[in-house]
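Protocol step 6 of 9: fold each sequence in the batch and record its structure tokens directly after the sequence line. For illustration, a two-sequence batch is reproduced in full.

Sequence one:
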Amino acid sequence: MNAIALAVFRSLLLLGFVFPAKLMAQVNPVMQWQQSNGFSKITIILSVLLLSALAAISIAWHMAQRRTLKNLTRQLSHETELRKKAESSQAMRENLLAGAVFAYTSEGIVITDANANIIDANTSFERLTGYSKEEALGRNPNFLQSGQHDESFYKKMWAQLKASGYWRGEIWNRRKSGALYPELLTINSIRDEHNRVTNYIAIFSDISQLKMTEKRLDKLAYFDQVTDLPNRIHLTDRLDQAILHSQINNLQLAIIFLDLDRFKSINESFGHAAGDELLRQISKRLKATLRAVDTVARISSDEFVMLIQHISSREEVQTIVNKLMATFEIPFNIENRPYNQTASIGISVYPDDGSNTSELLRSADSAMYLAKNEGRNTFRFFDKSDIRLTEKRIRLEIALQRAAKKNEFSLAYQPQYELSSKRIIGLEALIRWHNPALGDIPPSQFIPVAEQNGKIREVGRWVLETACQQGADWARKGIDFGRISVNISGIQLHENNFDELVKKVLVKTGLQPSCLELEVTESVVMNRIDAGISQLNRLRKLGVKIAIDDFGTGYSSLEYLKKLPIDKLKLDRSFVKDIPGDQDDLAISRAVISMGKALGLEVVAEGIETIEQNSTLLESGCAFGQGYWFSKPQSAEQIYEFIRKAKSAS
């Protein structure tokens, strides 16, 4: 607006002062007309001035518009120039970026002409293939072929590329060094405005690491990580195929289900690393025993399954099983020490014992549990009549889970005597289990189950607390029972805080430590000698006595026996039951008695049932014994009366 006003003012000056003569020359005829028509002179002059002002305003507005238009044109031209520069700069940046991507991307890039001859390649192509760009220019990429794909593979690739302009897939190529490698390859065709192919662009990456990862994942999915044996999934696949093959060809096959006896004890005794090493050694022996066409799989922590195809008879299978059992007769080497491990085996045969994978495995598993019930370290063929025994074991496991809470356990006590005087020197606490549905269940049936499912810790603690409480009660009543002896499993003994548990139980019940004796089997201590000795020393520091149970059935030597912090040896009943008639058993018994005396240990003979056995042992130097000839195990109430009457009689 200021610009327009200025322009008007300038126009007025120009019209009114700069050119008065010209103005008056134009106005005079008008004034003369107005005067002749009666207009005054002043009116005429005002009219002229008004017209001049309007003209000046019009001229000033047009001049301002022209200048504005000129400025806008200049500004637009400047902006257009800047835009062109920016577009040119952007295009330059995009070209630089594209060039950088081509040069520095980790994927190999090859550009060919329409005839598939290489016209360019990046540095990653050189790195991945080993060929320089100069070596590749002008050549067809087929010089990289590995020979792993047949002609039809490439025909299909080119057919898809020509039809859709695109192909993507995995391919094996060969480096300049001759090494083969897998790559993920993508090929695109480039066409001009006439839809004619002008170039092909191939982008590829080395997927060797990806393939290795896939292989590792497959191994994790189908193979056991500790032993490298097929796992349950892999075994199931193989067994499904083997059954189908046997069905079509009217053949037989066998499933051998092997379970390691008391395997948990090695993990508790030596640690899981030692357990894994034992599994690896067992795996090697099993594979070495079988044929290459047979399958050995590990399906759980302590269970192996073997698939034996093309068998002719059960006798042939039994021969194989005997060889497998024989591999366990040689001690394994664990931490540079011999370690004895046994196994129980169940066998099922197709098609007699099952028509599919699940039935055959279930049958072999059932037979294996029956082998364990027979004392372990043996084998059983599946028998349909044994199904009831398997079902009974399952019911037993379920009942065992709730037995302690339902107060179904009780303790019986068997006296231990001085043979010469018939004086009671102690009581062995023996667990009993009565279930309302299953009846009386002997320890030989449920203790192995408790050890397998880990329930032995709860059961063992209950026995320890109950026996100590009973001993403390008797002591407060003035009953001299000597010592109460409690059996301890290997799982309990090798728990790091077991000595703390014993201490807490003694404090809680008030039983004097000298009145408690803990019995551990020979094999439990010897399986982990250093840890066993350390634990036994901690227990003896509490004032507790230590006895080695079932002595003579293990493999301890005099050298190791001298190191054990123990107070008593218990001669196993298997050496007592046939004396004095069996001279071998008599010789062994006398040797154990002599060894105990030489080491300053008490020796207690187990299983004395006749006066002849008692007399022979006494003559051989054995001072103590227990067995049915003296007394059967009795309840706490019966023992209380038994000891009270014996004291009154003396």
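Sequence two, same batch, same settings:
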Amino acid sequence: MPSREQAGAPTRARSCQSTVSRVSSRTGHARPCPGPLPETIAHLATKGPRHVPKVTTGRLLREMIDLNSITYYPDPYYKCIQFSSYDRRSVAPDAPGWFANADNTNATDRKNYVRDETVDGRTEHVLAEVDGPGALVRFWSANPWVGEEGRLRIYVDGSDEPVLDASMLDLVDGKVEGFPEPFAVRPPAGKAGNLYFPIPFRNGCKVTHDGDWNGFYYQLNFRQYADSADVDTFSMAELAKYQAIATEVGERLTDAMNLPVQSESVTPFDVTVGPDGEGDIYNEEGPGAITTLTARVSAPNTRDALRQVVLQVFFDGSPTPQIESPIGDFFGSAPGVCPLVSLPFVVESDGTMHCRLAMPFGHWATMRLKNYGPQAVTVSGQIVRGPYEWTDSSMHLRAKWRIDHGVEGRPDGYDWPYLIVSGGGVWVGTSLMLMNPTPIPTPGGGWWGEGDEKIYIDGESFPSTFGTGSEDYFGYSWSSPELFQAAYIGQPRNDGPGNRGYVANHRWHMIDALPFAQSIEFYMELQTHTPTKGISYGRIGYCYTRPGARDDHPQINPSMLVLRDPPAWEVLPAGSAANSVVHEAECLEVVSGRVETESGVLWSAGSQACFAAQEGDTVSFDVPVAGEGAHGVIVCLTKRPGGGACSVSVGDGEGHDIDLVHAALVHLREYSVGEASGDSATLTLTCTRAGHIGIDYVRVAAPRA
């Protein structure tokens, strides 16, 4: 048996009076026993005997794509907690350090993890440790390459031999056998890594890493079951046993666009709702479940209509809607049409939107559209109803939108509520729609999302989920503006440059759903790099709730629904752009080719230089360069429908191939295209695929000291 010598290990909590008491998900220190984890609400109501299904790797895999079972209160009940590298100076909302932001590890003076252990002469950093039955369901890191020579080890049921021993980077890259894509997800730029895969255990789990590390960011999400839960512990043999299920689930996650849903009837609708008008598109008796809602909005100004037409859904006689949201925001498409493909929601580039989150009801369901805008709006689509058994553990879908305009983002942070619910239920998703008016063109300085998620379950005094950054919660990292989509996470909009303009993020909780017996409070810090006034901060919390639940949702009024577009602006060379001189492209001397000027508030100083290019067309600009040494040259280009492709070069330097097409959105991106020295340099754009090519500005960065 290998020797284990703990270095500064805290006392580990054990079960107390036959209740579940776990190591704190925050520090690894023992906390008072909280009492037993609740059983299902149905069982608490009936007090009769029941069959509790066994928890297996196969069952958990199926839950990753089962949009029906998540509508029932979980049986056996579990609590979802998170271990992370959050800054341990955060101890209480009313104490200094609550918004401390050093959310990474340091093996010397900032141990934002559980402890160190010595195993066979090597130091293993303990990232997470829980007692009793449970399942590891999600792993995320902003920088999984840290300590690349080290190993990530997962120990279960007190064994001294890990059930999984792998390179952390290989694991999130889908290179470890049994854990392929799409269970492993790497958003663009190859930085953050996610792994969604269930690893159940009967008698505890510990996760360690032994690489040389500093500045490591991580999150690990666990289900914790009551001691009575029947759990089959994960092993590679178990994985082989359920390989067919894993393959099927992987195929569904890969092809989320075509996820099959149950259907017993289809109700088409095509309604026109006038200004200040309303109309019902569905009124049906139960029991049943809406398994798909498909809608498309048509109006003279479709973008505004998607925000100003509000979807309301009433279940089982509720006088207030359980679902209330602008119709576009409900589908995660905001503002305007932002194409996305995820497990529960799909938005196509033509504006057709699909919701596959099931909406069960026992007696009656009413779906209504209210138009708070000044134009008539036509909404067409269909509602698919499927068979559903309404039981004592069934829940209604609850989705509530809220927004705050004129918000001031600050480096010291502020906790903003997404949704606070009293009653029993399960949190299943979160969407963010934000307008960031920063004039700083780089993520460094213009970033809005340093803030952490803080999720309180059942009256906790300290959140059992405490994150490391807003983008970390949404599955990416390092303030990346790049658009991406996956089954559970995505960023379908980020206008740019950097993080300026409209931003949309989402995350869907399936295997990592958050059950609550009494209440849930979901907060996210808004914490910006630099003080930023005039932010619009919209968000939706999605959860299933038991009948009788209530929430803190504010009533929607027309002033909330007015889009506050980013104001006219000029690039501010600050943050990571502080060492730059900015040249508006429309003001540069054109030394060859012809360009036109296109105007609009999207572009710095209100316009950009552009040309409708055929393959082989070339435009060259003379760019002033000040100072000695090699200066970096960064261009800001426009991506859009009908965009072309081009090769961009500086002087005699190598060309950089850039594709400027996007299916639906017009947005800006910066590209580093070379270096220049002397008094000036020639910047050349050569069309490699016909289409529109636009250049907003050129940023010349001074040599690094």
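Proceed to step 7 once all outputs are recorded. Observation for sequence two: The domain at 579-701 is CATH 2.60.120.260 (Jelly Rolls).
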